[in-house]
Amino acid sequence: MSDRLSLIEELVAAATKAGADAAEAILVSGTSLGVQVRQGKSEELERSEHNDVGLRVFVGSKTAIVSTTSTDPAGFNRLIEQAVSMARVVPEDRFAGLCDRSLVGRFTANTLDLVDGAEPDVAALTERAGAAEEAALAVPGVTNSQGGSAGYGRSDIMLAHSNGFAGHYARTSHSVSATVLAGSGTGMQRDYDYDSRVHLSDLDDPSMIGRSAGTRAVARLNPVKPRTGRMPVVFDPRVSNSLLGHLASAINGAAIARGTSFLKERMGTRILPTGINVTDDPTRVRASRSKPFDGEGVATAPLMLVENGELRSWVLDGRSGRQLGQPSTGHAGRGPSSPPSPSPTNLFLNGGAVTPEALIADIAEGVYLNEMMGNAVNGLTGDYSRGAAGYMIRNGALAEPIAEFTIAGNLMEMFAELQAANDLVFKRGTDAPTIRIDTLTIAGA
């Protein structure tokens, strides 16, 4: 990979010689292999490889981006000519530029353990996918399968700037999933489970994934609609991370700079209950979104976004930081054909002190959610409405399955009264424990 890093360093140097005041180049290459097994037979096999090169140039305060799928240096002069010509005619952007917090030097090693050296073959993936589906089909009540899947991927990211930064890191992924149906006719219910990890040794057992998918599907049979009204709602960890996703959107530096976030005036104030923290940690070892530097070459570090309930930081890249008069937080994400933008990495909420069982024990009537649909969320006002499915809570215990209803509220109020359990597990990249909110509107029967 050192040859490819040198390649984009040469591309950046050539761009500055051709008239760019500053330049950066990114090369993303990847390999993926995936299989699907259905009813015990291999149904799908897919392998892909890609190389994508992006070049961003600056002419004064004007900027342009071009990209290509070719790594042949013979085409670089044309790529540079296009980029510089475009930059000279686009409108000025006084906030554009390379990030002044970028590292300087070559960075090709890290301690985040993001690469599993063993690449599985088709036979190993097929066996993994088959084991997941077989375990799911063995659950009493499961009547059909949409398949078991397994996959492997590797991505290599190389970034170089005209300010002297050049870096490379790679990441692997192993995944397994199962999706099955329970019941028959119009009463069929579908559910799934999955896991994805950087290292194969950390991946959940395929049979466990399959059993979970089958058990979930059977448990959803014969759902009813809950009554319409206001009642406590408990979010399973499978969906509670969506609330954290809405929070991340609201504290994204680009939204704050545009003035389109309902939290834009809340820096330094309490937005979550005392004891609750929200952290983004791009340095967590063997984690799916970890990286040693961000999309602008800024060194990554853990960042406390909400501490003891108080909002402490926006999620910033270089441009949004300049708009707000603040330094980048090292959270620039980007692709070869797009400019950097603020993006969280390994985001999680913690601080809960009670078990999930204790969290629902005093609920006489409420709703437990484990699936959500749609996304009617107003980022400017915080108004929230989503379709959902799950179970009724009756006298502190889960009861009959429910479906075809919506929940509604306002995120500002929801965040303020949020209660968290102590069952946080790092699995999805954006992770939260079981969460309870006491006063949401249910629109059902």
What does this structure look like?
With 445 residues, this protein is of the alpha+beta class. The chain folds into two domains: 2-218, PmbA/TldD superfamily (PmbA/TldD fold, 2-Layer Sandwich), CATH 3.30.2290; 223-445, no CATH class. Helices cover 22% and strands 38% of the residues. It is built from nine helices and 20 strands. The strands form four sheets. Strands 1, 2, 3, 4, 5, 6 and 7 form a seven-stranded mixed sheet that branches. α3 (122-137) packs parallel to α4. The N and C termini lie far apart (59 Å). 43% of the residues are buried. The mean pLDDT is 95.
Number of β-strand runs: 20
Oligomeric nature of the chains: single chain
Q: Give the SSE string.
A: HEEEHEHEEEHEHHEEEHEEEHEEEHEEE
- As residue ranges, the low-confidence spans are none
What is the gyration radius calculated from CA atoms?
24 Å
- Share in helix: 10-25%
Structural classification: alpha+beta
* Strand residues, percent: 35-45%
Shape: globular
Q: How many domains make up the 3D coordinates?
A: 2
Q: What's the average pLDDT?
A: 95
- Sheet having the most strands: 7 strands, mixed
Which features would summarize this protein structure in a list?
alpha+beta; 445 residues; 22% helix; seven-stranded mixed sheet; five-stranded mixed beta barrel; 2 domains
Can you give me a brief rundown of this structure?
The chain is α+β, with helices and mostly antiparallel strands.
